[in-house]
Write a structure and sequence with these properties.
The chain has one helix at about 260-270; strands at about 5-10, 10-15, 20-25, 35-45, 50-55, 60-70, 70-75, 80-85, 90, 95-105, 105-115, 125-130, 135-140, 145-150, 150, 155, 165-170, 175-180, 185-195, 195-200, 210, 215-220, 225-230, 235-240, 250, 255. With about 300 residues, it is mainly β. The strands form 6 sheets. A 7-stranded antiparallel sheet has the order 1-22-19-24-17-14-13, with no helix packed on it. It is globular. About 40% of the residues are buried.
Length: about 300
């Protein structure tokens, strides 16, 4: 079976004073399964700690994977949780939630991703979950896998998802090689966090060398991929069933129709935060809603 392989270059941005590389959404590709947003921060020792004031979300789950450092999460449900290395925070916005994020350490390495909710779940009641421990597996020669979401290498993550989804952190301290079985129904992405890796999708006639700032997209139909590195390397393997129509993203919202964005923006502009509520305990202003631009419904 033939499948598409393409390279996606991240663009550089800033979140609360913390430099990030954003792989998704991208002009060339907006989603990988339900993964609709992928930021990578660090590894870095910061001069100014990250501080993101209260801001709203709807129609998605935010997925935070901490590799180094600590971040304090507060939300409008009253949750207050420190996220530490090796842990995941999952905040399902559903109908609407607001939260703040403050780094508690100078050293930070973090992947923050969004998961678009399917139609049947995007108006569900908001929730917050913290996962202090995740399953591990040793793969091939030198790779260590942490299963963040879904099933992989006979391990299942405790992190729930509303669509078929895969998220795995793969790390090697030195030279390593492994051939990984993939679910051919899924599209996948290899997102480099540190080092460099040679990626050989089985059935693709080229070896793709991937470095940080690049995401390698592998379309549905691929049954296995070989990963080979010569030195210390870390990457995320993301996957999921392709969506017939990608969701619409604007600011902190995931929806379907442009008109929804205006309604949500007006809600957040209310003094009480509307459907998104208010974050207690954070010292500082909340983020103002930007002007809603002319948006086009996804194809």
């Amino acid at each position: 079976m033939s499948f598409l392989v393409e390279r996606i270059t991240s663009h550089v941005g800033d979140v609360g004073g913390l430099p990030i590389q954003r792989a998704l959404p991208n002009k060339g590709r907006r989603v990988i399964g339900a993964w609709c947003f992928a930021d990578h921060a660090g590894p870095a020792t910061t001069v100014k700690r990250m501080n993101v004031g209260p801001h709203p979300h709807t129609g998605l789950s935010t997925f935070s994977w901490m590799i180094e450092g600590e971040i304090l999460h507060r939300d409008s449900l009253g949750s207050e949780q420190v996220l530490r290395a090796g842990q995941v925070n999952l905040m399902t916005a559903g109908h609407g939630i607001s939260h703040s994020e403050e780094s508690l350490s100078d050293r930070i390495h973090l992947a923050q991703l969004w998961i678009a909710l399917p139609d049947a779940e995007r108006e569900r009641a908001p929730s917050f979950q913290h996962f202090p421990e995740l399953p591990h597996a040793a793969l091939g020669d030198g790779w260590d896998a942490t299963v963040l979401v879904g099933e992989f290498a006979d391990q299942r993550s405790p992190v729930p998802s509303f669509t078929p989804l895969l998220g795995v952190d793969l790390a090697a301290a030195g030279p390593a090689c492994a051939t990984l079985a993939l679910d051919a129904r899924f599209e996948h992405g290899v997102m480099l966090l540190e080092g460099e890796v040679d990626v050989s999708p089985v059935g693709h006639d080229a070896v793709e060398t991937v470095a940080p700032g690049t995401l390698l997209y592998i379309g549905a139909g691929c049954e296995a991929v070989e990963l080979r590195c010569a030195a210390s390397t870390r990457l995320l393997l993301l996957g999921g069933e392709p969506w017939a129509t990608p969701p619409l993203l604007w600011w902190n919202f995931v929806g379907r129709e442009p008109a929804e964005m205006q309604v949500w923006a007006e809600d957040w502009a209310r003094e009480d935060g509307g459907r998104f509520g208010q974050v207690q305990g954070y010292v500082g202003p909340r983020l103002p809603v930007p002007l809603v631009p002319a948006l086009r419904k996804p194809d």
